[in-house]
Amino acid sequence: MTREGPRITGTRRIPPDPAIARAVGRHHSFETAVADLIDNSIDAGATHLLVRFIQSRGAIVGLRVIDNGRGMSASDLDGAMTFARQRDYEHGELGHFGVGLKAASLSQAEELRVYSQKLGATPAGASIEARDPTSVSTLDVDDVAHEIDQARSGFALGTGTIVEWSRTRTFLTSADAGDRARWIEERMTSLLAHLGLVFHRLLSTDRILISCDIFDRDSGSAGIPRRARPIDPFGYNAAMAAEPAELRFEIGGVSRVAKAHVWPAAQSGGPNFRLGGRPGTLFQGFFFYRGDRLVQAGGWNTLTVARPELEYARVSIDLDEELLEHVALNPEKAGLELNDNLRAAIRNSRTADGEVDFARYLQIAEGDRAASRQYTKRAVELMRPDRGFGPEMIAAVRDSVELSSAGELSIRWRVMDSESPFDVDVERRTIWLNEQYRALLAPNSDLDPDDAPFVKTLLLIAFSRYFDGSYLGTREKAEISAWDQILTAALREELAQQARRMSEE
Questions:
Q1: Which residue in 37, 134, 276, 401 is a FRET match for 15, CA 20 to 30 A apart?
Q2: Considering 169, 202, 227, which residue would you say is the last residue of a domain?
Q3: 56 HSE (CA, 13 A, CB side)
Q4: 216/222 Cα distance (integer angstroms)
């Protein structure tokens, strides 16, 4: 008799090295880390969730995620806090790797604390420190009960869990009050947008309610909570668009559907297209869902390449347990890889009547986008836009109006030593914009030289006539001075309104 291999004389479980545990989750952003905690709350049956920024002496020093789910007993919590243990997930649950709670939390903070109350069980609490993530400390039962009792979440906590990040690494440390106000506004706005997108299906059916607030530890009071609203990446007015093509594909002997949408151009300015306020071109491609939770927002997964012509193309696919065998989901649940079988199946997908396949769908999306950018030339003359304008804006101006023979006009940013929002430089054929207003006029520019296209195009329309000659006359100088005065006043008011909004949050 031939043995197939050496005999096994014993088996033992070896815990992970702390260095490996510390490396898990390092690709989390603040937003994906919080979303991972909310996955656990939803799996625990929570219907109300509160993300709470903890403030002390004007600074944000920690964060809590509070839910009204089933809670955990001491033994449940031991499993949740152990890196080496992965429980069996039930069908439809959002957990996947068994490391989300630890990896997400320790990617942002030096210490993770969990307080939990399960029906009929003694309150349970545990903590982990990033310096030794495989060592779990048990928290005093009375202290845990006190933390749960004093949570002041705005909803009943007969059962539920509080996940707390202490000694956060990724929060602002500046002592400047203005910096702190801007930081917390940006973080809360970004987080609410991310959660509104990732959980939009659950939020839109009121299966869960997610809100954020700021709790001042010194006064023991919380600010007014802000709710996460659903942001549906397919939330256009269906009456103004063609029906999505149902591209059918077969894998594992089972037929499935990829819903291939072409976003209507007339609705491309809204928040459901510009997710998080970012350009829609970033979100073309596949939107994969698992248990009604979005795990990939755009991207073509090597089936084609992203390009501006496909910005209206979005495809939704729901991943069931069988399809999950053909994908690799990253621990942050912010993207995935398809294996060869699934890529081939989607590439060969087609509608039931066979008239539209995946390649034809891409052509349709390109055609709709091209049609939305067809312009009728008018008997109006403008300077030819140059530096400061992107190629699409240059083409739009060229196709819409006659171009002046006086040459090209650039609109660029530079630092100025005055409050004036702009400077007309006829000699250099340039309008200079004051750099100090860039964050206000182009908040998402990331120093893109072609940013603020709307503002720049308005200036091109209003100021082209001042560049017909080689110098400015008395009348032109007086007009420009008046426009400068009015626009300076407008910017002062804009800044004042921004400050009022921030102070009210």
A1: 37
A2: 227
A3: 8
A4: 6
The H-or-E segment that residue 455 falls in is: helix 453-463
Mean of pLDDT values over 248-264:
93
The verdict on 275 and 356 lying in the same domain is yes
Cα dihedral angle (440, 442, 444, 446), rounded to 10 degrees?
-110
The encoded tokens of residue 191 equal: 């987080």
Give kind and range of the element (H or E) at residue 289.
strand 285-290
In a domain, 3, yes or no: no
Question: Are 207 and 242 members of one domain?
Answer: no
CB 116, CB 123: distance < 8 Å: yes
pLDDT tens sequence across 60-95: 999 999 999 999 999 999 888 886 555 454 544 444
Domain encompassing residue 336: 238-371
Domain assignment present for residue 50? The answer is: yes
Q: Shortest CA distance to 121 belongs to which of 181, 93, 161, 84?
A: 161
Read off φ and ψ for residue 33, nearest 5 degrees.
Answer: -65, -45
Q: How many domains does the chain have?
A: 3
pLDDT in tens, 277-295: 788 888 999 999 998 999 9
